[in-house]
Records
---
Amino acid sequence: MPLALRSPEDAIATVPLLLGFAPEHSVVLIVCDRTGGLSLTCRVDLPQADDVHAWSQEVVDVIGRATGGRARDALLVAFAPTRREQVVRLAVPALAALLESRGLRVVDQLWSWGRRWRSLSCPDLDCCPPSGRRVSAAARARAHSAFPGRDVKARRQDLRAGLDPVDRDAVEEVSRLLAAMEPVDENLRDIAISQAHDLLVNGCTRPRDAAMVLAALRDTRVRDTLIWDVLHAPRRTWPPMRSTLESIVRWAPRGDAAAAATILGILSWQCGDGTRANVALQRAREDDPGYSLATLIDASLAAGMPPGEWLAGLRGLPRGACRGRG
């Protein structure tokens, strides 16, 4: 998705929509690749004043691994109250200097508190007064127009709660339907894959739809082939599939959410939404702590693997290797 940040206040208004929640006591890095496209959005906690050097080194190492050395520009935005001004003024310039020593161009260093902001690298007090400038309604409107329908939670924990069951009656109905469904038969596996893919694209509007997808995902070969098909589909189909998977996870009974939540995590990661990817994978591990695919993807994110590298590996794998025969 193209992302146009016309001004510093555009960036500040956009960050909560990129993350899905309003950051606090944080530094957010928006990193672009050599084509000018959005490569990575990364949020880290502000350090303590005596930890700034080690903190900067760790953040830069993570950015380097995650971008594979293909990053070109970085924008730093600190979100912190005025009582933490001292650490903001220590941490952000230190991180910027280290990034630039590694070959990245830091286009600006911003600090936002409440609905006010200023640039830490701007010496013009008329442009960036000590009291800051307000984030305009126009900037907020531009940010929301770039992410239609995306809401912003107050905290990351609220984002995680968005994948919890919200309709107990629907969950119980899905559970009853699943109990009556037979395991996927080899002769019907291709039909199960096709039906599940169609439901992800077109939306699951009934508990029966969710139950059909969840029953199909109990079969590992269906799951793996569905992942292959989803990630080979046009990128414009990914957002509606993410929305459908969120609904399926909310309707899934205990013990049946891990597969759908893991696919949601993979798709979010490939969309550049690392926050929601981590939240979905957390949901998968809570549902089934031993779910190996969720553990594998979680480890890939933690190691800073670029999503494009993982996707290239999948796309180099023949579909038949996922589909298998048995």
Note: Residues 281 and 298 are 7 Å apart (CA to CA).
---
Amino acid sequence: MAGEARRKTPRSPRGKYGIMSDMLEIVELGDGKVERFNARPAFPQEAEEAAAKVLADIRARGDEAVADAVAKFEGAKLAPQEFRLPPLGERAKELDAGIVAAVGQAHERVKAFSEASLRKAWEMPTPRGGKAGEFFTPMDRVGVYVPGGTAPLASTSIHTVTLAKAAGVKEIVACTPAGKTGEVNPVLQYALELAGATEIYRVGGIQAIGMMAFGTASCRKVQKIAGPGNAFVTAAKRQVYGYTAIDQVAGPSEIAVLTDGSVDARWIAADLLSQAEHGSGWEKSLCVTTSRENAIAVRDEILRQTATLSRREMVERVIARDGILIVVAPDLESGMEAVNRFAPEHFEIMTKDALEVMRGVRSAGAVFAGPWTPESAGDFVAGPSHVLPTGGAANMFNGLTPDDFRRRHSFVAFTREDLEETKGAIETFARIEGLDAHGRAASIRFAT
């Protein structure tokens, strides 16, 4: 339907839902608003400049600069020796039993999935009796970042540290903001300790990334940093790449739902809102449906449910910024193509025969197939990590896996016969590239 004029869709009564009714549109596939919705900057200039300034200061002044940044951006006055949290110890017994059980269930499921997903060493025979293959070893020391600004993300503790532990990493550093009080939510700390964090620091934002990447007197540098964060954390991760490895660049949360109208509109609306409530205001929720009646029902449900949420104001900011879009597609095939172009962090397939429809997925961080698989199951307990690429990066990056915390090594073990068979080609390449010693390294083994 590209090029067709947008069909006007009746709006919900303004008196019932207020100004939000006029902001939440339903458009046809091919409307220019779809492409504008897809465009989201990965690196805001404000975040880039702030990250560069703070990181340079940390490189120059170490812990002193970290403490200054914590005081300025988080509000807590901490001396470097106070950065690292003492273990919960007996305080863990004060936690609600139901919360402990939920964290434990999530940890067990993520651990099981992580251990099953680890790549296995393998080898193959070479043509003349030797061997070649790959094997893997864990990194020695890694860092994970766990956001805590708008909510204590205990689930992120599980979805990062558990993977590093499953990979066999011995030293796992975790950083999370503590805010003005200087205190870390005890549930979040419990989750970090259960998952296997060996050091926990009450340092957040750019300063946490700098401390882990460069190393300071209070915290030795890490080999890799993983975990989600806001635009400033994302900018900082990008800028320390090279000083340390990073998992990916990830920004505000996003979700796309593809539906054929066979799944309850209330469910679809709830799933779309699950990502819009995260708090930055820049989240994205896309619904692509093959049914106009379903589109209207989903729109009305979004407006109705928004009014009941504790984070209503955060969701309304997303709606006001055109962060929720409902698109009507002529069929599932074109709808799937629209979602692939969006390349969402989370992709729900709420259709009949969802696993069959899933064969068309090319660009998505994580896929949730069928009406009984809300994205929130993936956020908390399903098994795969919820640390996923955003901002369209799902068309080139993968979600976090345990193998991100391991080093891959290839190996070759030639026999005399293998080298003899390939010696001529080695010498030819050496001659082409003007690398005499390369060629001699092969030929000298057969010299008399």
Note: The chain has a mean pLDDT of 91.
---
Amino acid sequence: MRNLTLLTDLYQLTMGQGYFSEGKSEQLASFDLFFRPNKLITYSVAAGLEQAAEYLENLHFEDEDISYLRSLGMFREDFLSYLKGMRFTGDVTAVREGEIVFPYEPILTVTAPMIEAQLVETALLTFVNHQTLIASKAAKICSAAGGGVMEFGLRRAQGPDAGIYGARAAIIGGCVGTSNVYAGKLFGVPVSGTMAHSWVMNFPSELEAFRAYAKSFPEGCLLLVDTYDTLKSGIPNVITVFKELRAAGHEPKGIRLDSGDLAYLSKEARKMLDDAGFEKAIICASGDLDENSVRSLKGQGAKIDSWGIGTKLITSADMPALGGVYKLAAVFEKDGTEVPKIKLSDTTEKITNPGLKDVYRLYDGKSGMAVADYITREGETVDTTKPLVIFHPVDVWKKKTLRCFTARNLRTPLIRKGKCVREKLPLLEINRYFRNEYAHFWEEYTRLDMPHIYKVDLSDELHALKKQMVNAYRQGGTGNDETV
């Protein structure tokens, strides 16, 4: 495993030396990692937590790291000596990977000595922001397609790590396979792929190219048909080769379309394949697709069975950054007393929720469908035997009374005293968890066009604390706030 301890912004280390000098290095602090609202975010799929846990467990400064920091001429020797012996000793509470999450909900909370908690901010955001972004994009594409989506983005990814962990996230979000062989090996997921246009162009004729490929891969043969002319050349040549395969005792898999009018071509190709007796041959489509083009194609009656999605998935082209943040929520006195912290702003959306928190998902007691999420002070109980009034955190006049409901705490321990306490799950099992949870959301919340805004509300106790701290600061300050 690579040592990623220096995968951080310089100011984490300069603040670290400052905390060290001020005697605050061992002060216990809690930070929340969450994301703010965005007009393109209807829901997100949490991912990257396994890599975050591995990073924290492996956190240590090697001799060459210390030498490099010394060469910058910025850090004192006593601080460098402190870093040399530092390990992550704190706790992390987090949602499961594959959990559906919404703005302001802490995906994870780090509670650790101040320097440790501060140092890990950048790397944790890197892991969680990127994979959550790609898993969320994959979920939207897979929902539009109704299944059968393969991740094909490695060559367009913004670097090898983005390609590898983007493929991982895409599987979490619903893709059934990846073209990325390294990711397939690393994460134990299906790999898929056939041929490029160069294969067809490298033979005297398209028919010879198809025959040569079928000879090498008689089982599951899937041929790319749009190198020259899909309907006049590609499909007729495919049918010829498919008949030859069948005569030899092999059943072909299908074709891939990569360009042109995919709706029209797929419908015509389907007719030609069916008329030739290849009703079970699948049609795969690729070529700069996303959830909007997939939905459009399906609306046009395209006869497409599976989808290869590359650039617009692996780069999340319409929203290339999640915008997750990592904010101080509390510090602790030596006796363990919690001192909540709040970040204030003239922009309401940037005011944070103070203190330690729990996040509950509330389900309708009859249908079992999710109706709201409920952020509380840590340790608050949700009494499901009594009616519960929930309200909008800003527009407090918007209220809803739940009378028959169940509640589930979304977060559980991930790390305790520096060690991961959560079982490492196979990637396909994480995907199954996501699909199960997704099924508990009404389509109104997950649809692409004008979705309902899912309710994420605060408990009375948390709302009162937040209001008290905001008012106290604006009336002269209390010292218990982290200002902009």
Note: The first strand starts at residue 28 and ends at 35.
---
Amino acid sequence: MELNEFIKSFADQFDETDASEISATTVFHDLDEYSSLIALSIIAMVDEEYDVTLKGDDMRASVTVEDLYNTVKSKL
């Protein structure tokens, strides 16, 4: 699992936020479009692509996209 690949899949969950705005250091909770529905989309994407089950606590504990990536990687 590569960080850049994860960032691209993460960015694909957003309809209105340009993918170029999302990087490893993006504080995703601060994105205007971020919502509980987006969080569920991200959880579903991680389950589908990486076969990892994320919980709401994992989403809340992650500050940046890279934090979330490291959480997913730790569960592989």
Note: The chain has a mean pLDDT of 97.
